[in-house]
Amino acid sequence: MSRDWRALSWVIGGAAVLVAVDLGRRILTNNDEARFPLLAQDILARSDWLFPTLNGPVYHNKPILLAWLIALASWPLGYVTQFTAVIPSAAAAFGTALVIFALGREMFGAEAGKYAALIAVTTQGVFLHGRLPMPDMLMTFFISASLWMLWRMTRGARWAWLGFYAFVGLAFWAKGPGGFLPLAVALAWAIVDRSPGRWRAQSLPLGLPLLAAIVAPWPLIRLARHADDLRQAVVHNQLFWYLPLDLRPGMVAEPIQNTFGILFPWVFVVPIVLVEAARRLRGRGGERDAVLLLVVASATLFVAIALSNQQRFRYYLPLVAPVALLTGWWASDAIAGRYAALRIPWRAYGVAGAVLAAAAVAGALLRRNALSELAATWPAYGGQVVVLVVTAGAIAVALTAGARAARRPRAFAAAWVGCAILVAWGYHWEVERRNAAHDYPGLRERMQPHLRGEPVVATLGLADMPLAFYLGRPVVPTATDVTLREVVRGATPAVAIVTDRALPSLAAGDGFTVLMRDRLALRPIAVVGYHAAPQNRSQ
């Protein structure tokens, strides 16, 4: 077996095992996690692949590629389950590892590609989002593939431009405008590199029309039947959601915290990698060009996402591919003995640690109810701090033990196995904790006697989409008790699932009766039934 095939077999085996761990065990606990499974369920139920509905209205906020894939994965069963809902994301995580291996192999060799792919699948970002039925992992797969094609374009591959713009278009179909990030990377690289032919290699006169043709069907089909709804979705849920409209206190702290979490635990070696990358950029040749592309890609993606008006942990997932490739390149050179001694930039670590600590403190102070949240969840936060300290210490020991070239392969193997166990154990522990707190399947079983007769189901103060997914029926969300009354009075019988805090506003005289009490999301809830009160007749 050749060295390339041996490296690929390690990637396939390692990625397959890590992707399969605890797959499908996580209960869908919020609207973001349940949204696309609900869309897929509606597609299977109504066979409407173009205009699926979400608890009643047609969904327009994002393209629905993920919903289609979930529906296809669930087709043999005829309905969506926790397991079938995450099959597309798991496949995207596995595919991302293969793409990273292929790109790393072309940039630096098969060993670097192997290390990069194995590092990527043991980051917290890929491990977590490969198990969530959300579009971020799918978009990251297409963005990573587009970076591969971008590199091949600059190397003179004849048809690579087709792949680049096709993958950018598919990234848009995965999540919307965020899929256009590779265009920003290509633009930034052409500006920074200034090598002859960089602009010509991007094939803009052919590529942009191709991209437009791939993207256009989504808005055009909707404009034909739902023009006003589409305009509302594009303006308010896309442009105003992401565009930086003002300066926010958390604009600095949140990106740093989210990047740290996505790249954990390999984020601890990033300062070493960046210092070596800066040294390599002083030279010339293909390796320097590859390092430059990855540095530019990492910086461009980070800045573009950090400037977004809304900040979410998952938005930073596309950073995994370029950072893992840089780390794989550094690990390959270190293991091959290219560095006579591993130089640890303690000043860089000191600065990075200070910035991270400042970001953590600022983020905690800027969050509402930060002290009360900390008091309620201090055991979990304490455990996370212990894990961070132990991980940092273990990596420091591995770097010190691997200072001699002969020990470096074993040091990397030990570090990778440790990272794999760390993220897998951490995820398993978190899933057990979340599932116990958000027992939607158990609530469904306990509510069965109250769902006979197909009552209208509404909710007040709780996420409606997980309830709709596990109850197997639409759930009408309401913001106030007044809205809840309007919903239930239009249908009899009706059932409402409300928080304990909202219960006093629903008087028995209005036709509400407490059917059962339960707990969900660490707080007490009540299931109330509604029957129209008989009207008083005049004598």
Task: Summarize this entry quickly.
The chain has 539 residues and is mainly alpha-helical. Helix content is 64%, strand content 6%.
Would you give an account of this structure?
This protein is mainly α. 64% of the residues lie in helices and 6% in strands. The chain has a five-stranded mixed sheet with strand order 2-1-3-5-4, sandwiched between helices. The termini are far apart. Mean pLDDT is 84; it is low at 369-383.
Keywords:
five-stranded mixed beta sheet; globular; mainly alpha; 539 residues
Question: What string gives the helices and strands in order?
Answer: HHHHHHHHHHHHHHHHHHHHHEHEHEEE
Q: State the distance separating the first and last CA atoms.
A: 96 Å
Radius of gyration: 26 Å
Structural class given helices, strands, pairing?
mainly alpha
Count of individual beta strands: 5
| Largest beta-sheet details | 5 strands, mixed
Instruction: Give the DSSP E fraction (strand runs of 2 or more residues).
Output: 5-15%
- Average per-residue pLDDT, rounded, comes to 84
Uncertain ranges: 369-383
Shape: globular
Q: Which quaternary structure do these chains form?
A: single chain
Major sheet: order of its strands? 2-1-3-5-4
Number of continuous helical runs = 23
Percent helix:
55-70%
Reconstruct the topology from this structure:
Layout: H1 3-20, H2 31-46, H3 65-74, H4 82-108, H5 110-121, H6 124-129, H7 136-154, H8 160-175, H9 181-193, H10 198-201, H11 204-215, H12 217-225, H13 227-242, H14 253-263, H15 270-280, H16 286-306, H17 320-335, H18 346-366, H19 370-401, H20 408-437, H21 440-447, E1 456-460, H22 464-471, E2 475-478, H23 481-489, E3 494-499, E4 512-520, E5 523-530
Parallel strand pairs: 1-2, 1-3
Antiparallel strand pairs: 3-5, 4-5
Helix pairs in contact: 1-4, 1-5, 2-3, 2-22, 3-4, 4-5, 4-7, 4-17, 5-17, 7-8, 7-9, 8-11, 9-16, 12-13, 14-18, 15-17, 16-17, 19-20
